[in-house]
Amino acid sequence: MSTSRPASRETRHEAALTPALLREIGLFGALSDEVLDHLVLSLKTVHVHAGDTVFREGDPAREMYVLLEGEMEVTKHSRRGHETRVAILGPLDTFGEMALIDMQNRSATVRALAPSRILCVTAEDLNGLYRFDLKAYALIVLNIARDMSRRLRVTDGLLADFAASVLDEWGATRSRQEPR
After folding, report:
1. Domain range annotation of the chain
2. What residue spans of the chain are helical by DSSP H?
3. What is this structure's pTM?
């Protein structure tokens, strides 16, 4: 994590994380109690202060996160260098998962808007789950793919609306400029 202050890592995973909490998170949907117990013992939570950056666009990546408490913003730089907010995240939202799928650097910056607590799922955690329970591993990867697909559908709709709006404006401007 690239923060201006060091984030505090909880050392008592059992007190901070429970199978019941994991059950509420879509990423862990349909997992058995045994697998949830395993994850409670292996996953870590991190406290992030308001204003801290969890990661920056272009950073190398080997983990994804689930926002347990707080609020985060996702920003992206345009080709002209303008930073634009593309999303606000709330409790139980996931972020950073693309890096675990495509092994590329971060595609956006994520910053805490409020004091937050995040669950970190590393590539090593997923590898450990792969060794512990292949079916559970496959379910998590499928849940990541479903969430990414849902986000892509939303983005496609926004892009189509934006393109239609730009074309409508261009057409209206052009018709006003044509001689009569």
Report:
1. 8-177
2. 13-16, 19-24, 33-42, 98-102, 123-132, 134-177
3. 0.80
